[in-house]
Design brief:
Layout: H1 2-8, E1 14-16, E2 36-39, H2 42-53, H3 58-72, E3 82-88, E4 95-99, H4 123-126, H5 138-149, H6 159-167, E5 169-170, H7 173-181, H8 183-186, H9 190-196, E6 209-210, H10 213-225, H11 228-231, H12 234-244, H13 255-259, E7 264-266, E8 268-273, E9 276-281, H14 287-297, H15 302-305, H16 310-330, H17 341-345, H18 347-354, E10 389-394, E11 400-406, E12 416-417, E13 420-421, E14 434-435, E15 438-439, E16 457-460, E17 466-473, H19 477-490, H20 496-501, E18 505-508, E19 511-515, H21 524-529, E20 533-537, E21 542-549, E22 552-557, E23 564-567
């Protein structure tokens, strides 16, 4: 059944609107037109579509999509995690961004992921259990955004997900693959083993129907009683008990940590790339790094080079290496660490960084620069597994919501409560709090939010109208995916779906990874000739977007990850 549904949704670039090519995007004050939803699963996209057809806003649709993903894509996102949301008001043009990132419990210290000898734990040892679980933020973030931008009743947004959980849904080939390869996380608890595995321990297969009455009950409670039913009371107590009593890596999270969680409205940051205004949320998101990649490339004529030219990909690789180096040094929770976001995005700084890029050869060692406003911190890497999910919604009034949600790695911490998986987001912190005697910006601290690669982004055309809203999933590759998609649309004039699924390159540190099985593999010798250390890999790619093109909204979704885009 799900295979037939996926097939019926191709091609994924679906038209959503009927205005003429010369008219502006639909807005409350002018042109008419339908909306669109893009998500990583067709059933979640259908939940958002249902809200639009009931007169809901883009934010209503995005929230309903995110709730449904808790059911049908539990390995990647959901109410047990956090996210970022950027909203464009189609009437006023105002941009707002919401931070629902998970936070470290009040008892967390910089030594959270150090062993008894003071050395960082191996990543695989730190993930399972309670210690890696941050206080979830999605429910508070969704409620905050809904109060401002929602049109439908709060409870209505939960109805599609409750039906899916109660009545059952089919396991997709992608989920079946996760169960087969990531079974340790999926079956870490007795509940997870009974839900996703048979009596002999065999993972459930694609096409099997599963039901989740526990999750249906959890969602019904939040729908009826609001976000406090998640953060205060029996459900919160059950969550705290789960993480504190974990057999492996028990947490010190308290009921007070949950009760005191607050989503935040963050400043929206914008810069220009080839006369387009590129906007997203500030730290701790990955937007600043993504914008650096673009701006450092602006002096090069990527359009003339074309997407089939190894020189273009060499330049993209070099820009990525410089931007990721800055990220390792400076990106963190701005409430705890001064992050020089404006300096990193300034024209003068990025011109100096771009000047380091040569079309002929590779930078020997890409290191962080010194942007205006920078303070002395030490670069530090932190592993970022490929989880997460992105969704985009546009309504008939031209409102836009682009949102990334995550529980971090596949099946998060492996812990379950109330029918859903809890995140392992705290492993996005740098495990070592200092290096060479200097503090690490992204070190663990009580109440702090770990940095993130999530980069929900809105692109405005030179005439001021929304041209593109997008984001991606896939750990640290998110930043590179979003930048590549924008380049593919603006520089190479690709339709949004083709831009999303076009070959991907990711360059961090000294290494360059090109997407296995694509045209980029043939460019490896040319990249190596410029000094790059290149390997072809199966990259964790999952992008979603909605584009205004030729007088209509067009949804694009990543068919590599079972994504779907639906018109209203």
């Amino acid at each position: 059944m799900i295979a037939r549904l996926l097939k019926s949704l191709l091609p994924l670039a679906l038209l959503a609107g009927c205005a003429t090519a010369s008219s502006p995007p639909p807005s409350a004050s002018g042109a008419t037109g339908g909306g669109a939803v893009s998500a990583a699963d067709p059933r979640a996209a259908a939940a958002g579509q249902e809200m639009l057809r009931q007169g809901g806003s883009a934010v209503d649709a995005a929230i309903a999509t995110g709730i449904a993903l808790t059911v049908v894509e539990p390995q990647s996102s959901g109410i047990g995690g956090g996210g970022f949301l950027v909203v464009h008001d189609g009437t006023t043009g105002r941009l707002t961004s919401y931070d629902g990132r998970e936070v470290a419990p009040g008892a967390a210290t910089p030594a959270l992921f150090l062993d008894a000898s003071g050395k960082p734990l191996p990543f695989g040892e730190a993930v399972p259990g309670g210690k890696s679980v941050g206080v979830p933020g999605n429910i508070r973030m969704w409620a905050m955004a809904h109060r401002v931008h929602g049109k439908l009743p709060w409870a209505r947004l939960f109805e599609p997900a409750i039906r899916l959980a109660r009545d059952g849904f089919e396991i997709t080939p992608r989920m079946a693959e996760f169960l087969d390869t990531r079974g340790r996380g999926a079956g870490f608890t007795p509940w997870g083993r009974s839900y996703f595995f048979g009596p002999n321990g065999e993972p459930r297969k694609a096409g099997e129907t599963v039901r989740n009455p526990d999750l249906a009950a959890s969602l019904q409670a939040i729908a009826a009683r609001g976000p406090d039913s998640f953060y205060v009371g029996p459900a919160a107590q059950a969550l705290v008990q789960t993480v504190r009593s974990a057999a492996k890596n028990p947490s010190q999270m308290t009921a007070g940590d949950l009760a005191s969680y607050e989503a935040k409205e963050r400043p929206v940051l914008c810069g220009t790339y080839r006369r387009h205004r590129i906007c997203g949320m500030g730290p701790p998101s990955g937007f600043v790094t993504m914008f650096e990649i673009l701006k450092q490339l602006e002096r090069f004529d990527l359009r003339a080079l074309g997407r089939d030219n190894p020189e273009a990909w060499h330049l993209i690789a070099e820009s990525q290496r410089l931007a990721y180096a800055d990220r390792d040094a400076y990106m963190a929770d701005p409430d705890f660490t001064p992050v020089p976001a404006e300096g990193l995005m300034s024209d003068s700084y990025l011109a100096s960084r771009s000047a380091l890029i040569s079309k002929d050869g590779r930078i020997a060692k890409a290191v962080a620069g010194t942007p205006p406003g920078a303070r002395a911190v030490t670069p530090a890497l932190s592993p970022e597994p490929a989880g997460t999910s992105h969704m985009v919604a546009v309504d008939h009034a031209g409102n836009v919501a682009t949102m990334t949600s995550t529980i971090e790695g596949p099946f998060g911490s492996g812990l379950t409560v109330g029918g859903f998986y809890l995140n392992n987001e705290l492993t996005d912190f740098s495990f070592a709090p200092e290096q060479n005697g200097a503090p690490v910006a992204n070190r663990v601290e009580a109440g702090k939010r770990p940095r993130s690669a999530m980069s929900p982004t809105i692109v405005y055309a030179p005439d001021g109208h929304v041209r593109l809203a997008l984001g991606a999933a896939g750990g640290a590759t998110i930043i590179a995916q979003v930048a590549k998609t924008i380049i593919a649309v603006i520089d190479w004039d690709l339709p949004v779906e083709e831009a999303i699924i076009s070959p991907q390159l990711v360059a961090m540190g000294d290494g360059v990874a090109v997407e296995q099985g694509t045209a980029l593999e043939a460019m490896i010798p040319a990249l190596q000739a410029r000094g790059h250390k290149v390997a072809a890999r199966a990259l964790p790619l999952k992008g979603n977007a909605v584009e205004w093109r030729d007088g209509q909204w067009i949804g694009g979704a990543d068919r590599r990850s079972e994504g779907a885009a639906l018109k209203e």
